[in-house]
Specification:
This protein starts with a helix and ends in a 5-residue tail after the last strand. It has about 600 residues and is mainly alpha-helical. A two-stranded parallel sheet has the order 1-2. It has a domain at about 225-360 and about 580-600. It has 10 helices and 2 strands, in the order H-H-H-H-H-H-H-E-H-H-H-E. It has helices at about 5-70, 80-105, 110-135, 140-145, 145-225, 240-280, 285-305, 320-465, 470-585, 595; strands at about 315, 600. This is Methyl-accepting chemotaxis protein. Belongs to the methyl-accepting chemotaxis (MCP) protein family. InterPro entries: Chemotax_Me-accpt_rcpt, HAMP_dom, MCP_chemotaxis, MCPsignal_dom. It is found in: Membrane. GO terms for molecular function: transmembrane signaling receptor activity.
Length: about 600
Protein backbone atom coordinates (compact mmCIF):
# COMPACT_ATOMS: atom_id res chain seq x y z
CA UNK A 1 0.00 0.00 0.00
CA UNK A 2 1.40 3.42 -0.98
CA UNK A 3 2.07 6.03 1.71
CA UNK A 4 -0.19 9.03 2.24
CA UNK A 5 2.53 11.34 0.91
CA UNK A 6 2.80 9.35 -2.34
CA UNK A 7 -0.99 9.35 -2.70
CA UNK A 8 -1.08 13.13 -2.33
CA UNK A 9 1.74 13.57 -4.89
CA UNK A 10 -0.01 11.27 -7.38
CA UNK A 11 -3.33 13.07 -6.88
CA UNK A 12 -1.66 16.46 -7.44
CA UNK A 13 0.03 15.19 -10.62
CA UNK A 14 -3.30 13.84 -11.91
CA UNK A 15 -5.09 17.14 -11.14
CA UNK A 16 -2.33 19.10 -12.86
CA UNK A 17 -2.52 16.78 -15.90
CA UNK A 18 -6.30 17.13 -16.24
CA UNK A 19 -6.12 20.90 -15.79
CA UNK A 20 -3.29 21.17 -18.31
CA UNK A 21 -5.18 18.98 -20.79
CA UNK A 22 -8.33 21.11 -20.43
CA UNK A 23 -6.31 24.31 -20.92
CA UNK A 24 -4.49 22.83 -23.91
CA UNK A 25 -7.75 21.71 -25.52
CA UNK A 26 -9.28 25.15 -24.97
CA UNK A 27 -6.28 26.93 -26.52
CA UNK A 28 -6.17 24.49 -29.43
CA UNK A 29 -9.92 24.84 -30.01
CA UNK A 30 -9.68 28.64 -30.04
CA UNK A 31 -6.71 28.68 -32.43
CA UNK A 32 -8.26 26.08 -34.78
CA UNK A 33 -11.66 27.79 -34.91
CA UNK A 34 -10.04 31.19 -35.53
CA UNK A 35 -7.97 29.74 -38.38
CA UNK A 36 -10.98 27.93 -39.94
CA UNK A 37 -13.18 31.01 -39.59
CA UNK A 38 -10.57 33.22 -41.26
CA UNK A 39 -10.15 30.72 -44.10
CA UNK A 40 -13.93 30.44 -44.65
CA UNK A 41 -14.28 34.25 -44.64
CA UNK A 42 -11.36 34.48 -47.07
CA UNK A 43 -12.96 31.86 -49.35
CA UNK A 44 -16.27 33.73 -49.28
CA UNK A 45 -14.54 37.03 -50.14
CA UNK A 46 -12.55 35.40 -52.96
CA UNK A 47 -15.69 33.71 -54.34
CA UNK A 48 -17.61 37.01 -54.24
CA UNK A 49 -14.81 38.83 -56.07
CA UNK A 50 -14.61 36.01 -58.61
CA UNK A 51 -18.34 36.24 -59.27
CA UNK A 52 -18.10 40.01 -59.77
CA UNK A 53 -15.15 39.45 -62.11
CA UNK A 54 -17.25 36.93 -64.04
CA UNK A 55 -19.97 39.57 -64.40
CA UNK A 56 -17.34 42.04 -65.70
CA UNK A 57 -16.23 39.34 -68.17
CA UNK A 58 -19.72 39.29 -69.66
CA UNK A 59 -19.97 43.09 -69.42
CA UNK A 60 -16.83 43.44 -71.57
CA UNK A 61 -18.44 41.36 -74.29
CA UNK A 62 -21.52 43.58 -74.12
CA UNK A 63 -19.25 46.63 -74.50
CA UNK A 64 -17.61 45.14 -77.61
CA UNK A 65 -20.99 44.35 -79.17
CA UNK A 66 -22.19 47.86 -78.30
CA UNK A 67 -19.09 49.29 -80.04
CA UNK A 68 -19.95 47.33 -83.20
CA UNK A 69 -23.56 48.54 -83.04
CA UNK A 70 -22.43 52.16 -82.54
CA UNK A 71 -21.22 52.23 -86.20
CA UNK A 72 -24.91 52.34 -87.13
CA UNK A 73 -26.18 55.82 -86.27
CA UNK A 74 -29.75 54.55 -86.12
CA UNK A 75 -28.89 52.46 -83.01
CA UNK A 76 -28.35 55.65 -80.93
CA UNK A 77 -25.10 54.39 -79.33
CA UNK A 78 -22.13 56.70 -78.65
CA UNK A 79 -18.72 55.08 -79.23
CA UNK A 80 -17.02 57.31 -76.65
CA UNK A 81 -19.52 56.21 -74.00
CA UNK A 82 -18.90 52.59 -74.98
CA UNK A 83 -15.14 53.12 -74.73
CA UNK A 84 -15.57 54.71 -71.28
CA UNK A 85 -17.73 51.76 -70.15
CA UNK A 86 -15.11 49.37 -71.52
CA UNK A 87 -12.34 51.10 -69.58
CA UNK A 88 -14.42 51.09 -66.40
CA UNK A 89 -15.36 47.41 -66.74
CA UNK A 90 -11.78 46.44 -67.59
CA UNK A 91 -10.47 48.30 -64.51
CA UNK A 92 -13.10 46.63 -62.31
CA UNK A 93 -12.21 43.23 -63.82
CA UNK A 94 -8.52 43.73 -63.08
CA UNK A 95 -9.31 45.05 -59.59
CA UNK A 96 -11.32 41.93 -58.70
CA UNK A 97 -8.57 39.60 -59.98
CA UNK A 98 -5.83 41.53 -58.13
CA UNK A 99 -7.95 41.59 -54.95
CA UNK A 100 -8.29 37.81 -55.11
CA UNK A 101 -4.58 37.42 -55.77
CA UNK A 102 -3.72 39.50 -52.68
CA UNK A 103 -6.31 37.72 -50.53
CA UNK A 104 -5.16 34.25 -51.61
CA UNK A 105 -1.42 34.85 -51.05
CA UNK A 106 0.11 31.75 -49.43
CA UNK A 107 -2.98 29.55 -50.06
CA UNK A 108 -4.06 26.99 -52.67
CA UNK A 109 -6.35 29.60 -54.27
CA UNK A 110 -3.40 31.62 -55.61
CA UNK A 111 -2.54 28.95 -58.20
CA UNK A 112 -6.19 29.02 -59.37
CA UNK A 113 -6.11 32.84 -59.74
CA UNK A 114 -2.77 32.73 -61.60
CA UNK A 115 -4.30 30.28 -64.10
CA UNK A 116 -6.84 32.95 -65.16
CA UNK A 117 -4.23 35.67 -65.86
CA UNK A 118 -3.10 34.55 -69.34
CA UNK A 119 -6.58 34.14 -70.95
CA UNK A 120 -7.67 37.35 -69.16
CA UNK A 121 -4.91 39.42 -70.78
CA UNK A 122 -5.63 37.89 -74.20
CA UNK A 123 -9.36 38.60 -73.83
CA UNK A 124 -8.83 42.24 -72.80
CA UNK A 125 -6.37 42.75 -75.67
CA UNK A 126 -8.91 41.37 -78.18
CA UNK A 127 -11.67 43.57 -76.69
CA UNK A 128 -9.54 46.72 -76.92
CA UNK A 129 -8.58 45.84 -80.51
CA UNK A 130 -12.22 45.50 -81.62
CA UNK A 131 -13.36 48.67 -79.85
CA UNK A 132 -10.33 50.61 -81.13
CA UNK A 133 -11.19 49.77 -84.77
CA UNK A 134 -14.97 50.15 -84.44
CA UNK A 135 -14.93 53.93 -84.95
CA UNK A 136 -12.41 54.21 -87.80
CA UNK A 137 -12.50 50.84 -89.56
CA UNK A 138 -15.71 49.00 -88.62
CA UNK A 139 -15.24 46.33 -91.30
CA UNK A 140 -11.91 45.26 -89.78
CA UNK A 141 -13.46 45.41 -86.32
CA UNK A 142 -16.18 42.98 -87.44
CA UNK A 143 -13.51 40.69 -88.88
CA UNK A 144 -11.85 40.54 -85.45
CA UNK A 145 -15.09 39.40 -83.80
CA UNK A 146 -14.47 35.61 -84.32
CA UNK A 147 -11.08 35.89 -82.61
CA UNK A 148 -12.67 37.96 -79.81
CA UNK A 149 -15.41 35.35 -79.28
CA UNK A 150 -12.77 32.61 -79.17
CA UNK A 151 -10.91 34.51 -76.46
CA UNK A 152 -14.24 35.07 -74.70
CA UNK A 153 -14.95 31.31 -74.70
CA UNK A 154 -11.41 30.52 -73.48
CA UNK A 155 -11.67 33.01 -70.60
CA UNK A 156 -15.18 31.84 -69.81
CA UNK A 157 -13.94 28.27 -69.50
CA UNK A 158 -10.98 29.38 -67.34
CA UNK A 159 -13.29 31.47 -65.10
CA UNK A 160 -15.72 28.58 -64.74
CA UNK A 161 -12.88 26.19 -63.82
CA UNK A 162 -11.49 28.69 -61.33
CA UNK A 163 -14.95 29.22 -59.79
CA UNK A 164 -15.43 25.47 -59.37
CA UNK A 165 -12.00 25.11 -57.75
CA UNK A 166 -12.59 28.05 -55.39
CA UNK A 167 -15.98 26.64 -54.42
CA UNK A 168 -14.39 23.22 -53.84
CA UNK A 169 -11.76 24.80 -51.56
CA UNK A 170 -14.52 26.63 -49.66
CA UNK A 171 -16.48 23.38 -49.24
CA UNK A 172 -13.32 21.65 -48.02
CA UNK A 173 -12.79 24.40 -45.45
CA UNK A 174 -16.39 24.03 -44.25
CA UNK A 175 -15.98 20.26 -43.97
CA UNK A 176 -12.75 20.72 -42.00
CA UNK A 177 -14.57 23.14 -39.66
CA UNK A 178 -17.29 20.55 -39.02
CA UNK A 179 -14.67 17.85 -38.33
CA UNK A 180 -12.79 20.16 -35.97
CA UNK A 181 -16.01 21.07 -34.17
CA UNK A 182 -16.85 17.39 -33.58
CA UNK A 183 -13.32 16.69 -32.29
CA UNK A 184 -13.46 19.68 -29.90
CA UNK A 185 -16.87 18.65 -28.53
CA UNK A 186 -15.67 15.08 -27.96
CA UNK A 187 -12.47 16.21 -26.23
CA UNK A 188 -14.29 18.70 -23.98
CA UNK A 189 -16.92 16.13 -22.97
CA UNK A 190 -14.25 13.51 -22.26
CA UNK A 191 -12.27 15.95 -20.09
CA UNK A 192 -15.45 17.00 -18.27
CA UNK A 193 -16.37 13.38 -17.47
CA UNK A 194 -12.79 12.54 -16.48
CA UNK A 195 -12.48 15.58 -14.20
CA UNK A 196 -15.83 14.86 -12.50
CA UNK A 197 -15.00 11.18 -11.93
CA UNK A 198 -11.53 12.01 -10.65
CA UNK A 199 -12.80 14.72 -8.26
CA UNK A 200 -15.45 12.46 -6.72
CA UNK A 201 -13.00 9.53 -6.54
CA UNK A 202 -10.30 11.69 -4.92
CA UNK A 203 -12.73 12.96 -2.27
CA UNK A 204 -14.03 9.46 -1.46
CA UNK A 205 -10.53 7.96 -1.45
CA UNK A 206 -9.17 10.67 0.87
CA UNK A 207 -12.12 10.32 3.21
CA UNK A 208 -11.86 6.52 3.33
CA UNK A 209 -8.09 6.04 3.43
CA UNK A 210 -6.91 9.06 5.48
CA UNK A 211 -9.56 10.97 7.42
CA UNK A 212 -11.67 8.11 8.78
CA UNK A 213 -8.67 5.94 9.85
CA UNK A 214 -7.07 8.90 11.67
CA UNK A 215 -10.33 9.71 13.48
CA UNK A 216 -10.69 6.07 14.52
CA UNK A 217 -7.07 5.92 15.70
CA UNK A 218 -7.60 9.09 17.74
CA UNK A 219 -10.59 7.48 19.48
CA UNK A 220 -8.49 4.35 20.21
CA UNK A 221 -5.75 6.49 21.83
CA UNK A 222 -8.28 8.39 23.95
CA UNK A 223 -9.71 5.04 25.13
CA UNK A 224 -6.20 3.73 25.88
CA UNK A 225 -5.32 6.93 27.77
CA UNK A 226 -8.46 6.35 29.86
CA UNK A 227 -7.06 2.99 30.99
CA UNK A 228 -9.10 0.67 28.77
CA UNK A 229 -6.69 -1.84 27.18
CA UNK A 230 -9.27 -4.36 26.00
CA UNK A 231 -9.74 -3.02 22.46
CA UNK A 232 -6.81 -3.18 19.98
CA UNK A 233 -6.30 -0.15 17.69
CA UNK A 234 -7.64 -0.30 14.10
CA UNK A 235 -5.40 -0.20 11.01
CA UNK A 236 -2.56 -2.36 12.31
CA UNK A 237 -2.43 -4.27 9.00
CA UNK A 238 -1.94 -1.04 6.96
CA UNK A 239 1.52 -0.34 5.48
CA UNK A 240 1.43 3.43 5.45
CA UNK A 241 1.93 6.11 8.11
CA UNK A 242 -1.44 5.34 9.72
CA UNK A 243 -0.41 1.66 9.98
CA UNK A 244 2.84 2.68 11.71
CA UNK A 245 0.89 4.81 14.18
CA UNK A 246 -1.52 1.92 14.88
CA UNK A 247 1.41 -0.43 15.54
CA UNK A 248 2.90 2.12 17.94
CA UNK A 249 -0.41 2.44 19.79
CA UNK A 250 -0.64 -1.36 19.98
CA UNK A 251 2.85 -1.48 21.56
CA UNK A 252 1.73 1.13 24.07
CA UNK A 253 -1.38 -0.98 24.83
CA UNK A 254 0.74 -4.10 25.32
CA UNK A 255 3.09 -2.16 27.62
CA UNK A 256 0.12 -1.00 29.71
CA UNK A 257 -1.08 -4.59 29.96
CA UNK A 258 2.42 -5.73 31.00
CA UNK A 259 2.62 -2.92 33.57
CA UNK A 260 -0.67 -4.05 35.07
CA UNK A 261 0.66 -7.61 35.24
CA UNK A 262 3.82 -6.34 36.94
CA UNK A 263 1.74 -4.59 39.54
CA UNK A 264 -0.16 -7.80 40.18
CA UNK A 265 3.10 -9.75 40.42
CA UNK A 266 4.50 -7.16 42.86
CA UNK A 267 1.44 -7.53 45.06
CA UNK A 268 1.79 -11.31 45.03
CA UNK A 269 5.49 -10.99 45.86
CA UNK A 270 4.67 -8.80 48.85
CA UNK A 271 2.19 -11.34 50.10
CA UNK A 272 4.77 -14.10 49.67
CA UNK A 273 7.38 -12.08 51.52
CA UNK A 274 5.00 -11.46 54.39
CA UNK A 275 4.23 -15.15 54.54
CA UNK A 276 7.95 -15.93 54.61
CA UNK A 277 8.47 -13.41 57.41
CA UNK A 278 5.72 -14.99 59.42
CA UNK A 279 7.04 -18.54 58.73
CA UNK A 280 10.72 -18.10 59.44
CA UNK A 281 10.55 -15.46 62.23
CA UNK A 282 14.35 -15.36 61.88
CA UNK A 283 17.03 -13.04 60.67
CA UNK A 284 16.51 -14.36 57.17
CA UNK A 285 12.93 -13.12 57.44
CA UNK A 286 14.23 -9.66 58.27
CA UNK A 287 16.70 -9.77 55.38
CA UNK A 288 13.97 -10.86 53.04
CA UNK A 289 11.70 -8.18 54.40
CA UNK A 290 14.47 -5.63 53.80
CA UNK A 291 15.01 -6.83 50.25
CA UNK A 292 11.26 -6.75 49.68
CA UNK A 293 11.09 -3.25 51.02
CA UNK A 294 13.90 -2.16 48.73
CA UNK A 295 12.19 -3.77 45.77
CA UNK A 296 8.76 -2.40 46.55
CA UNK A 297 10.07 1.05 47.30
CA UNK A 298 11.97 1.06 43.98
CA UNK A 299 8.92 -0.17 42.13
CA UNK A 300 6.70 2.32 43.94
CA UNK A 301 9.01 5.20 43.03
CA UNK A 302 9.18 3.98 39.41
CA UNK A 303 5.39 3.59 39.25
CA UNK A 304 4.96 7.05 40.70
CA UNK A 305 7.18 8.58 38.01
CA UNK A 306 5.42 6.46 35.42
CA UNK A 307 2.04 7.67 36.68
CA UNK A 308 3.28 11.25 36.35
CA UNK A 309 4.21 10.61 32.70
CA UNK A 310 7.99 10.41 33.22
CA UNK A 311 9.48 7.64 31.09
CA UNK A 312 13.09 8.92 31.11
CA UNK A 313 14.41 6.64 33.88
CA UNK A 314 15.48 3.06 34.67
CA UNK A 315 15.64 1.03 37.94
CA UNK A 316 19.43 0.47 38.25
CA UNK A 317 19.58 -0.62 41.90
CA UNK A 318 19.71 -4.39 42.11
CA UNK A 319 16.81 -6.20 43.81
CA UNK A 320 16.87 -9.46 45.62
CA UNK A 321 17.40 -12.38 43.27
CA UNK A 322 13.75 -13.32 43.39
CA UNK A 323 12.79 -9.73 42.43
CA UNK A 324 15.56 -9.11 39.89
CA UNK A 325 13.43 -10.47 37.06
CA UNK A 326 10.66 -8.12 38.11
CA UNK A 327 13.11 -5.14 37.90
CA UNK A 328 14.28 -6.15 34.43
CA UNK A 329 10.68 -6.61 33.24
CA UNK A 330 9.74 -3.19 34.62
CA UNK A 331 12.74 -1.51 32.95
CA UNK A 332 11.94 -3.29 29.65
CA UNK A 333 8.30 -2.14 29.84
CA UNK A 334 9.31 1.45 30.51
CA UNK A 335 11.82 1.36 27.61
CA UNK A 336 9.26 -0.14 25.17
CA UNK A 337 6.63 2.35 26.29
CA UNK A 338 9.07 5.25 25.68
CA UNK A 339 10.02 3.88 22.23
CA UNK A 340 6.33 3.48 21.43
CA UNK A 341 5.57 7.07 22.34
CA UNK A 342 8.56 8.22 20.29
CA UNK A 343 7.14 6.33 17.30
CA UNK A 344 3.75 7.93 17.94
CA UNK A 345 5.40 11.36 18.08
CA UNK A 346 7.18 10.70 14.78
CA UNK A 347 3.84 9.55 13.28
CA UNK A 348 2.21 12.74 14.52
CA UNK A 349 4.93 14.77 12.76
CA UNK A 350 4.37 12.81 9.54
CA UNK A 351 0.60 13.33 9.77
CA UNK A 352 1.12 17.02 10.43
CA UNK A 353 3.38 17.31 7.36
CA UNK A 354 0.89 15.34 5.26
CA UNK A 355 -1.99 17.54 6.37
CA UNK A 356 0.05 20.61 5.42
CA UNK A 357 0.80 19.06 2.01
CA UNK A 358 -2.92 18.36 1.59
CA UNK A 359 -3.67 22.01 2.43
CA UNK A 360 -0.95 23.15 0.03
CA UNK A 361 -2.33 20.83 -2.68
CA UNK A 362 -5.81 22.22 -2.07
CA UNK A 363 -4.43 25.75 -2.42
CA UNK A 364 -2.63 24.83 -5.67
CA UNK A 365 -5.80 23.18 -6.93
CA UNK A 366 -7.75 26.34 -6.08
CA UNK A 367 -5.27 28.51 -8.02
CA UNK A 368 -5.33 26.15 -11.00
CA UNK A 369 -9.13 26.16 -10.87
CA UNK A 370 -9.06 29.97 -10.99
CA UNK A 371 -6.63 29.87 -13.94
CA UNK A 372 -8.87 27.39 -15.70
CA UNK A 373 -11.87 29.64 -15.12
CA UNK A 374 -9.90 32.56 -16.62
CA UNK A 375 -8.98 30.42 -19.65
CA UNK A 376 -12.62 29.45 -20.08
CA UNK A 377 -13.59 33.12 -19.93
CA UNK A 378 -11.05 33.95 -22.65
CA UNK A 379 -12.31 31.02 -24.73
CA UNK A 380 -15.90 32.25 -24.35
CA UNK A 381 -14.85 35.77 -25.43
CA UNK A 382 -13.04 34.36 -28.48
CA UNK A 383 -16.10 32.28 -29.38
CA UNK A 384 -18.32 35.37 -29.16
CA UNK A 385 -15.97 37.25 -31.49
CA UNK A 386 -15.95 34.31 -33.96
CA UNK A 387 -19.77 34.16 -33.81
CA UNK A 388 -19.93 37.89 -34.62
CA UNK A 389 -17.57 37.38 -37.59
CA UNK A 390 -19.66 34.50 -38.93
CA UNK A 391 -22.85 36.58 -38.54
CA UNK A 392 -21.17 39.46 -40.38
CA UNK A 393 -20.12 37.09 -43.19
CA UNK A 394 -23.67 35.76 -43.37
CA UNK A 395 -25.00 39.34 -43.62
CA UNK A 396 -22.57 40.18 -46.42
CA UNK A 397 -23.54 36.99 -48.24
CA UNK A 398 -27.21 37.99 -48.01
CA UNK A 399 -26.39 41.46 -49.41
CA UNK A 400 -24.46 39.90 -52.28
CA UNK A 401 -27.36 37.57 -52.94
CA UNK A 402 -29.76 40.52 -53.13
CA UNK A 403 -27.35 42.28 -55.52
CA UNK A 404 -27.21 39.16 -57.71
CA UNK A 405 -31.03 39.00 -57.72
CA UNK A 406 -31.25 42.67 -58.80
CA UNK A 407 -28.69 42.02 -61.52
CA UNK A 408 -30.73 39.04 -62.72
CA UNK A 409 -33.85 41.23 -62.96
CA UNK A 410 -31.88 43.86 -64.89
CA UNK A 411 -30.56 41.22 -67.28
CA UNK A 412 -34.10 39.92 -67.86
CA UNK A 413 -35.27 43.46 -68.62
CA UNK A 414 -32.32 43.90 -71.01
CA UNK A 415 -33.28 40.66 -72.80
CA UNK A 416 -36.81 42.02 -73.16
CA UNK A 417 -35.51 45.33 -74.59
CA UNK A 418 -33.25 43.46 -77.04
CA UNK A 419 -36.25 41.33 -78.08
CA UNK A 420 -38.22 44.53 -78.83
CA UNK A 421 -35.24 45.90 -80.77
CA UNK A 422 -35.06 42.67 -82.77
CA UNK A 423 -38.78 42.94 -83.63
CA UNK A 424 -38.27 46.59 -84.70
CA UNK A 425 -35.37 45.57 -86.94
CA UNK A 426 -37.49 42.83 -88.44
CA UNK A 427 -40.23 45.38 -89.20
CA UNK A 428 -37.63 47.70 -90.74
CA UNK A 429 -36.41 44.82 -92.91
CA UNK A 430 -40.00 44.07 -93.98
CA UNK A 431 -40.64 47.75 -94.82
CA UNK A 432 -37.38 47.83 -96.84
CA UNK A 433 -38.56 44.86 -98.88
CA UNK A 434 -41.92 46.54 -99.45
CA UNK A 435 -40.17 49.76 -100.55
CA UNK A 436 -37.98 47.70 -102.88
CA UNK A 437 -41.15 46.31 -104.47
CA UNK A 438 -42.60 49.76 -104.85
CA UNK A 439 -39.36 51.01 -106.42
CA UNK A 440 -39.58 48.10 -108.87
CA UNK A 441 -43.05 49.21 -109.82
CA UNK A 442 -41.83 52.80 -110.24
CA UNK A 443 -38.92 51.58 -112.35
CA UNK A 444 -41.31 49.58 -114.53
CA UNK A 445 -43.57 52.62 -114.90
CA UNK A 446 -40.56 54.79 -115.87
CA UNK A 447 -39.53 52.19 -118.44
CA UNK A 448 -43.03 52.05 -119.93
CA UNK A 449 -43.22 55.85 -119.91
CA UNK A 450 -39.87 56.03 -121.73
CA UNK A 451 -41.19 53.61 -124.36
CA UNK A 452 -44.38 55.63 -124.76
CA UNK A 453 -42.38 58.86 -125.06
CA UNK A 454 -40.14 57.24 -127.68
CA UNK A 455 -43.16 56.08 -129.67
CA UNK A 456 -44.69 59.54 -129.32
CA UNK A 457 -41.50 61.11 -130.68
CA UNK A 458 -41.52 58.73 -133.63
CA UNK A 459 -45.15 59.59 -134.37
CA UNK A 460 -44.44 63.32 -134.03
CA UNK A 461 -41.58 63.01 -136.49
CA UNK A 462 -43.86 61.34 -138.89
CA UNK A 463 -46.38 64.16 -138.45
CA UNK A 464 -43.81 66.70 -139.60
CA UNK A 465 -44.23 70.35 -138.60
CA UNK A 466 -47.55 69.60 -136.96
CA UNK A 467 -45.96 67.18 -134.53
CA UNK A 468 -42.94 69.29 -133.45
CA UNK A 469 -44.65 70.56 -130.31
CA UNK A 470 -45.74 67.09 -129.36
CA UNK A 471 -42.19 65.85 -130.03
CA UNK A 472 -40.80 68.39 -127.54
CA UNK A 473 -43.27 67.25 -124.89
CA UNK A 474 -42.47 63.61 -125.66
CA UNK A 475 -38.74 64.38 -125.25
CA UNK A 476 -39.37 66.03 -121.90
CA UNK A 477 -41.49 63.09 -120.77
CA UNK A 478 -38.72 60.74 -121.88
CA UNK A 479 -36.11 62.74 -119.97
CA UNK A 480 -38.36 62.71 -116.90
CA UNK A 481 -38.84 58.96 -117.22
CA UNK A 482 -35.08 58.41 -117.48
CA UNK A 483 -34.46 60.58 -114.42
CA UNK A 484 -37.16 58.63 -112.56
CA UNK A 485 -35.53 55.34 -113.56
CA UNK A 486 -32.14 56.61 -112.44
CA UNK A 487 -33.60 57.85 -109.11
CA UNK A 488 -35.39 54.53 -108.64
CA UNK A 489 -32.11 52.68 -109.31
CA UNK A 490 -30.29 54.84 -106.76
CA UNK A 491 -33.10 54.33 -104.25
CA UNK A 492 -32.93 50.58 -104.88
CA UNK A 493 -29.17 50.60 -104.21
CA UNK A 494 -29.68 52.55 -100.98
CA UNK A 495 -32.48 50.19 -99.93
CA UNK A 496 -30.25 47.18 -100.67
CA UNK A 497 -27.42 48.65 -98.60
CA UNK A 498 -29.87 49.52 -95.81
CA UNK A 499 -31.22 45.94 -95.92
CA UNK A 500 -27.66 44.60 -95.55
CA UNK A 501 -27.07 46.95 -92.60
CA UNK A 502 -30.43 45.94 -91.09
CA UNK A 503 -29.51 42.25 -91.41
CA UNK A 504 -26.15 42.93 -89.73
CA UNK A 505 -27.98 44.85 -86.98
CA UNK A 506 -30.44 41.97 -86.51
CA UNK A 507 -27.51 39.56 -86.13
CA UNK A 508 -25.82 41.82 -83.60
CA UNK A 509 -29.09 42.24 -81.69
CA UNK A 510 -29.47 38.44 -81.64
CA UNK A 511 -25.88 38.12 -80.33
CA UNK A 512 -26.66 40.74 -77.70
CA UNK A 513 -29.79 38.83 -76.65
CA UNK A 514 -27.75 35.61 -76.38
CA UNK A 515 -25.12 37.41 -74.27
CA UNK A 516 -27.76 38.82 -71.97
CA UNK A 517 -29.31 35.38 -71.56
CA UNK A 518 -25.87 33.99 -70.65
CA UNK A 519 -25.52 36.82 -68.14
CA UNK A 520 -28.89 35.89 -66.64
CA UNK A 521 -27.83 32.26 -66.35
CA UNK A 522 -24.53 33.32 -64.75
CA UNK A 523 -26.36 35.49 -62.26
CA UNK A 524 -28.70 32.60 -61.44
CA UNK A 525 -25.62 30.45 -60.77
CA UNK A 526 -24.22 33.19 -58.56
CA UNK A 527 -27.48 33.23 -56.61
CA UNK A 528 -27.17 29.46 -56.05
CA UNK A 529 -23.59 29.87 -54.81
CA UNK A 530 -24.69 32.65 -52.46
CA UNK A 531 -27.45 30.37 -51.12
CA UNK A 532 -24.88 27.63 -50.46
CA UNK A 533 -22.60 30.10 -48.67
CA UNK A 534 -25.50 31.37 -46.53
CA UNK A 535 -26.38 27.77 -45.59
CA UNK A 536 -22.75 27.06 -44.64
CA UNK A 537 -22.61 30.23 -42.52
CA UNK A 538 -25.81 29.21 -40.71
CA UNK A 539 -24.35 25.76 -39.98
CA UNK A 540 -21.20 27.36 -38.60
CA UNK A 541 -23.32 29.59 -36.38
CA UNK A 542 -25.10 26.47 -35.04
CA UNK A 543 -21.75 24.77 -34.42
CA UNK A 544 -20.45 27.79 -32.50
CA UNK A 545 -23.59 27.72 -30.33
CA UNK A 546 -22.88 24.07 -29.45
CA UNK A 547 -19.27 24.90 -28.57
CA UNK A 548 -20.56 27.77 -26.36
CA UNK A 549 -22.74 25.23 -24.55
CA UNK A 550 -19.71 22.95 -24.04
CA UNK A 551 -17.67 25.83 -22.61
CA UNK A 552 -20.53 26.68 -20.20
CA UNK A 553 -20.58 23.02 -19.14
CA UNK A 554 -16.83 23.21 -18.43
CA UNK A 555 -17.46 26.35 -16.37
CA UNK A 556 -20.02 24.39 -14.31
CA UNK A 557 -17.49 21.59 -13.82
CA UNK A 558 -14.92 24.17 -12.67
CA UNK A 559 -17.39 25.42 -10.05
CA UNK A 560 -17.88 21.82 -8.86
CA UNK A 561 -14.10 21.44 -8.62
CA UNK A 562 -14.00 24.58 -6.49
CA UNK A 563 -16.59 23.01 -4.16
CA UNK A 564 -14.44 19.87 -3.95
CA UNK A 565 -11.45 22.06 -3.05
CA UNK A 566 -13.44 23.63 -0.21
CA UNK A 567 -14.36 20.15 1.07
CA UNK A 568 -10.71 19.06 0.89
CA UNK A 569 -9.70 22.21 2.81
CA UNK A 570 -12.29 21.43 5.52
CA UNK A 571 -11.01 17.85 5.73
CA UNK A 572 -7.44 19.17 6.07
CA UNK A 573 -8.55 21.45 8.92
CA UNK A 574 -10.23 18.49 10.68
CA UNK A 575 -7.08 16.43 10.24
CA UNK A 576 -4.94 19.22 11.71
CA UNK A 577 -7.27 19.53 14.72
CA UNK A 578 -7.14 15.78 15.43
CA UNK A 579 -3.34 15.84 15.05
CA UNK A 580 -3.17 18.64 17.64
CA UNK A 581 -5.26 16.54 20.06
CA UNK A 582 -2.97 13.57 19.51
CA UNK A 583 0.12 15.72 20.07
CA UNK A 584 -1.43 17.03 23.33
CA UNK A 585 -1.95 13.46 24.57
CA UNK A 586 1.64 12.47 23.80
CA UNK A 587 3.01 15.67 25.37
CA UNK A 588 1.81 14.43 28.78
CA UNK A 589 4.75 12.04 28.82
CA UNK A 590 8.38 12.98 29.37
CA UNK A 591 10.31 11.46 26.46
CA UNK A 592 14.07 11.82 26.26
CA UNK A 593 16.02 9.05 24.54
CA UNK A 594 19.28 10.45 25.93
CA UNK A 595 17.87 10.06 29.45
CA UNK A 596 16.85 6.51 28.54
CA UNK A 597 20.34 5.76 27.21
CA UNK A 598 22.02 7.42 30.21
CA UNK A 599 18.93 6.93 32.39
CA UNK A 600 18.19 8.36 35.81
CA UNK A 601 18.82 5.98 38.67
CA UNK A 602 16.21 5.44 41.36
CA UNK A 603 18.09 4.46 44.47
CA UNK A 604 16.58 3.12 47.61
CA UNK A 605 16.39 5.59 50.41
CA UNK A 606 16.44 4.00 53.81
Amino acid sequence: MASIQKKIILASIAIFSITGAATGVGMWATETLNRNSEYVALSAEVLRNHMQADMMHDALRSDVLAAILSTNASMGLDLKTVEADLGEHEASFREMIEANRSLSAGTNVKAVIDGVEKPLLAYMEAANAVVGLAGSRPEEAIKLMPEFMRQFSALEKAMETAGDQIEALSDAASAESEKTKATINLALKALLVLASIFSVGLFLLTRRSVIQPILQLSKNMETLAGGDTSQPPSGIDRRDEIGSMSVAVEVFRQAAIANRALEEQAAAARQQAQADQEATRQQAEEDASERLRIATSGLAAGLKRLASGDLAFQLDQAFAPQFEALRHDFNSSVRQLAETLFAISDGIGTIDGSSREIAAGAGDLSRRTENQAASLEQTAAALEEITANVSNANKRTSEARLAATDANHSALKSVEVVSHAEEAMRRIETSSRQITGIIGVIDEIAFQTNLLALNAGVEAARAGEAGKGFAVVAQEVRDLAQRSAKAASEIRDHIRQSSAEVESGVKLVLDTGTALKDIGERIAGIDQHMTAIATSAAEQSTGLAEINAAVNSMDHATQQNAAMVEQSTAASATLAAETAKLRALVSRFRLDMEDIGGHDVIRHVA
